[in-house]
Amino acid sequence: MGNFHYYLCLISFILLTIKLLTQRKRNLPPSPFSLPIIGHLHHLKLPLYKSWATLLPKYGPILYLRVGSRRILVVSSPSDVEECFGKNDIIFANRPQTMAGDILMYDHRSYVWAPYGPLWRSLRRLSVVEILSSINVQKLTSIREEEVGNFVRRLFEASAAYGSTGKVDMRYLFSLLTMNFSLKLVSGKRGEEVDKEAERMFVQEFKSLFFVGVGTNVCDFFPILKWIGFQGIEKRLKELHRRRDEFLQKLVDGTRLNTARDVAVGKEEGKNPSLIEKLLSFQEKDPGFFSDELIKATALMVFIAGTESTIFTLEWAMSLLLNHPEALEKVRAEMVSNVGNERLLNDSDLANLPYLGCVVDEVLRLYPPAPLLLPHYSSQDCTVGGYEIPKGTLLMVNAWAIHRDPTIWDEPAKFKPERFQGSFQEKEGSKYLPFGLGRRACPGAAMGLRMILLALGTAIQCFEWEKVGSDKVDMTPGKGQFLLKAIPLEALCSPRPHLIKILSQSQTSN
Q1: Which residues does the annotation say bind heme (predicted)?
Q2: Radius of gyration for the alpha carbons in the chain, expressed in angstroms and rounded
Q3: Which of 40, 224, 320, 494 is the least crowded, having the fewest Cβ atoms under 10 Å away?
Q4: Which domains occur in the chain, in start order?
Q5: For residues 239 and 248, what is the distance between their CA atoms, to the nearest angstrom?
Q6: Binding residues
Q7: In the chain, which residues have pLDDT < 50?
């Protein structure tokens, strides 16, 4: 078996060498020194968005890399981004095929990862019109407000348990908030609430199932590693898919059973059917397209896209506000002026809180959830920045580098929500990219922003906030593909005197 692997590697090396020697010289973008076989693998240091940004001074904003069998175009300037998602938008409308995508995404039936074509257009219509339209976002107002109410109730319980001020694990509470909202949106029910232990088990299970992306791994760049079962990656992905599928199928089967039972007893349908209920009604009319696999893939998209990015943004936002108490007080003053202390903030108030919106915009600039936008894949040869880009090139947009470019932003490393006040020009074009750009930009931006604004605003309205200790909150990011704080946020909160009565009533009603 060892000799077989040796000869297989040797043949692969010879074929790759012949290909490199015989292909014509292209006008490719600048590229660092590469090594045989592995190419620029040594430049893939974590976190990638930072390591690639360090190459900008020497090679410029457009970089060409080769890692194993794959070519990568890294773009870090608004002009090149506009070219990729302007004149070349259709060419870069595809997603790369990856091992994780093949195994985890139900034959690419997820809107986010489906190949560009008729299936993607059908899924886009389904997602944008039936799930994420402005009308549906508005219909979900009661669910958002209910879950944010549960969130502040837990904060109130923590402060009561520790006297006037309680230390709270903000990442855990933000996770519970977003997971329950996503689960209720998808299936009409929340996570376990039998006791605190069951609640924590629900959060842990949800994270283990859905906080694993479908990005690339080393086997996508070196296919031979997949053949030899390198590090058991494929085996682990298949086991994850089995567990995910089991969880999602239970949701589908349970919803189908409840719907049939309601019909049998003549119960009228609710005003806001869950996502699965809606898709099952479509299945009755068109079972060929609306298969169980498509329903599960659509639910999976909501769970993955609708939880992680919201949790990360809320945690960064609260961390930044604790480190900048003057901005925190400015948000609270705006809240008192426009909402008052006689009731809790609601969805309709958000339009009257522009500074709160500026804070979230600035958080997303400094800490975009996906600092390297989800990868795109060129379907044919094209030109970007005057360079030739071959068909089959992986496109990575370094949003983090663009958001912190001193030639674009004034004092880019500083937290300055005021930069977004009075004008939305800063968010125009391709210099502000927290949700991507082009026809494959994130369709759930409006829904995610509503939850972030409502949760953050209500927390500030109802509680006084302090750091744990005298030092500033540690803002070190983790090294993964998404921008997560390396150290989970803990903070001290105490209910504001004017809101104690309302919070007590909320606690009693629950």
Answers
A1: 442
A2: 24
A3: 224
A4: 1-89+370-407 (3.30.43.20)
A5: 14
A6: 442
A7: 508, 510
